[in-house]
Amino acid sequence: MIKPVKGFSRLSKKEKIEWLAGTYLKDQPDDVETLKQYWNEDTRLQQLHDEFTENTLSNFYLPFGLAPNFRINDRLFAVPMTIEESSVIAAASKAAKFWLDRGGFKATVINTVKKGQVHFTYKGDKKKLQNYFDKIKPVLLESVKPITANMEKRGGGVLSIDLRDKTDELENYYQLHCRFDTKDSMGANFINSCLEKFADVFEAEAQRYEEFTAEEANLEIIMSILSNYVPECLVRAEVSCPVSELSEDTEMSGEEFAEKFLQAIKIAEIEPYRAVTHNKGIMNGIDAVVLATGNDFRAVEAGIHAYASKDGKYSSLTHASIENGEFKFWLEIPLALGTVGGLTSLHPLVKLALDILQKPSAIELMKIVAVAGLAQNFAAVRSLITTGIQQGHMKMHLMNILNQHKATKEEKAKIVDFFQHNTVTHSSVVEQLEKMRKG
Ligand code: MEV
């Protein structure tokens, strides 16, 4: 029977692996070898990766690819993408090329405000709480000066603090609702440090506020944390062209394509089952660039999906229109990203990705990421309403199946050739490979 392990984090890497091998991988020495196979020979680089997180045993690779030919606001970008799913980078590249000759992508950042809250409970006279807040607000702002000094030099800082009464939703619950500008950093540490300072001062000063009764002075801080919902940190990406120019590469006329495309978008707008998959396709592009540039994809995911439900029902993040013969397709999403701080200067591949993107500011990166999402969605919907996605998908998946079955270079070439004219399914590929191997 397996017993709980004590003090695991204090073991060396070697000891952790020994414990794992002796506990969960008893008859699988190959698994331990796999862990070691992924160590980097460069010990300095390995140590860097080990120290990103805790209890590190090895490294986990994801492909790092490039989607070239993205024309964004008349600048040409090659977009680095980190993603394991086949077809995504091919689809992004295809969409980039499609729009390259049709005016490219236009992207605008609408605003860049991030938020955080100090959540607290207070039992007593609401008017007194408001008076206390009005009095203490300058003290709160002053108290974070040591934290905000550098950010203010870069033009950012605390934008506002408001007291919000939430007692109609939860008894005795109030919050300090704070808005921040964190410039080129994602700003999580900055925001959380400011919030925790606000909370300390707010709680301590309450004890000295003469108007409060003892119970009122004992307001209780529940927690202080940034919000990953950033509907005031918005970016919009857009493409447009005459409907007649949409026909290339498809068997439909431009008009037919535009109408069918619009219908597909409308379905995603009103039908949550479709909207989730539709938005998942958008996230294929967004996450891949967010990951390559060392940003927090969980935060981005959470914020974007919340935004997709902002009108009370989960809906499409992209929209389309046809007006006066002009097809327009756009995406509007909240994105809190950083191009300084965090992993950006630590992870060599993240630094490389940012170099490829010509060292963007956070605002520029927001535009690139939004464009990647829009391009991905265009490519997906285009396939869905024309050939279906399996055709392209299975061709790309073919390579994964061949690798799984350890096909040699020669076998791969022959099988890829065979499946130019045959339908790819997992079983048909395996069957063909076996046939070939039997001669
Ligand atoms: C697959 O990863 C993404 C798609 O399902 C997106 C979509 O259906 O729009 C193709």
Structure notes:
There is one protein chain. A hairpin with a 7-residue loop joins strand 5 and strand 6 (173-181). The protein has 16 helices and ten strands. The strands form three sheets. A four-stranded antiparallel beta sheet has the order 3-8-10-9. Strands 5-6-4-7 form a four-stranded antiparallel beta sheet. With 439 residues, it is an alpha+beta fold. The model has no long low-confidence stretch (mean pLDDT 95). It folds into four domains: 8-50, no CATH class; 64-107 and 234-387, 3-hydroxy-3-methylglutaryl-coenzyme A Reductase, Chain A, domain 2; 114-226, Alpha-Beta Plaits (2-Layer Sandwich); 393-437, no CATH class. The chain has helices spanning 13-23, 29-37, 43-50, 88-100, 126-143, 145-153, 188-208, 214-217, 254-270, 272-292, 297-308, 348-356, 362-385, 390-404, 409-418, 426-438; strands at residues 64-72, 75-82, 106-109, 114-121, 157-165, 173-181, 220-226, 234-242, 318-323, 326-334. Helix content is 49%, strand content 18%. It is globular, with a radius of gyration of 27 Å. Helix 4 (88-100) crosses helix 13 (362-385) and helix 10 (272-292) packs across helix 13 (362-385). The structure holds (R)-mevalonate. Residues 85, 277-278, 280-281, 284, 380-381, 384, 389 line the site of (R)-mevalonate.
Please specify the SSE layout and strand pairing.
Elements: H1 13-23, H2 29-37, H3 43-50, E1 64-72, E2 75-82, H4 88-100, E3 106-109, E4 114-121, H5 126-143, H6 145-153, E5 157-165, E6 173-181, H7 188-208, H8 214-217, E7 220-226, E8 234-242, H9 254-270, H10 272-292, H11 297-308, E9 318-323, E10 326-334, H12 348-356, H13 362-385, H14 390-404, H15 409-418, H16 426-438
Helix pairs in contact: 4-13, 5-7, 9-10, 10-11, 10-13
